[in-house]
Task: structure prediction
Amino acid sequence: MDFPTVRNTVDRLLLEQALYAPLELLLAEGRLSFADYEAWRCGEIATLEELLAGNPARIRARLEQADHYAAALGLRAERREYPAWGEGTGRQLRISSDAALDDLCRIHYLRNANEVQLDLFMDNSGNVLVNSVVAALASRRAEEAATLLERLRETDPSHLRLGGLEALCAAAQRPVMADVEAETAFLEGNLTPLATAELGAAARDFLTPFWRRLGEALGERPFAVEMPQMHASYALARALDWAGVRQAVLAERTWRDSPLLRLRLAEALYHLGERREALAQWCLLCWDFPRDAERALAGGKLPDKELQPAWERYRDLDVEPEPDAPFFPAWLLLERPELRAALTAEDAPQTHPAGRAYVALHKLPAGAATLSEQTMALRLQLKQAHPGLFAIYLRTL
Result:
């Protein structure tokens, strides 16, 4: 059981959301798709347990490890209920038919416990109404949020958060703009930062329908390099609709010519659970668009959180020639054995030394095998392509 990976995910969630929530860990690890989570929150699915990807015993063990780690950090534990989203609902949802697992998934851990506790002494009717408006907006109950907002205006007309919540309530009840460029600019430059500031971690749940509707409005609009955000794949990625992202990218006849579309496809594949295929796409980018690959690998925004540390280890190698993106897939074969099944020797560019190095490492037998004529030829091919990688290969035997 890889406890450090669980710990790293909890740390990341605490940094991004100021709390640890078990369902957020399942979403972050790809055990739960956002589409299934959303359907459950909308009351379309009875429980989540049958929708989780992976071994149930392993999933439970990871959740227990995360719970123990969060508790050890001294965070404040809080039980959370999950009301169904949408107008006129409010019924409480079940996470699992297993009472122990259901309880485990409801315990949240909050950072800055002292600050949260202080709020209890500052509570007044205005703050209570603000929290109620936020909860209604996050639960997609626009009419209820508007009613609560009106009460807030009457109760505390000078409340500092009144203006921001008014704008969010207005946005929740307005139709999508006919001008998709104006809608994109509004979501990107106005609504998203406002929702993030006012709703915190709940902004995602509030914003997803806006991005999905924009993706639908963009439809089959062709990808343009000069306007990369004006494509359905961008909006659908913001809506966490990874199946839609994949479909939108593959619908472009020349998607292989765009490093950005290929990055979007790889991200979609990763979130859809096709991890090896995503890894193959990132490696192919290293050969076809090395500068774009280097920026992506160094940027720390790829969903595969093991890939950036691997890239950093690779870049720190003291070898000649100096490590660069085209040779990264060959070196990665030594670190990520699953790449061998995802990216074959035939996929590598034979005209580039980096491709020939990958072919050699892909075909070389693991371990200190008998030095056949073929093995000797492959070793020579690797040595000629990259002497430094050849030396590393020898050390692995």
User: Anything to note?
Assistant: The two ends are 27 Å apart (CA to CA).
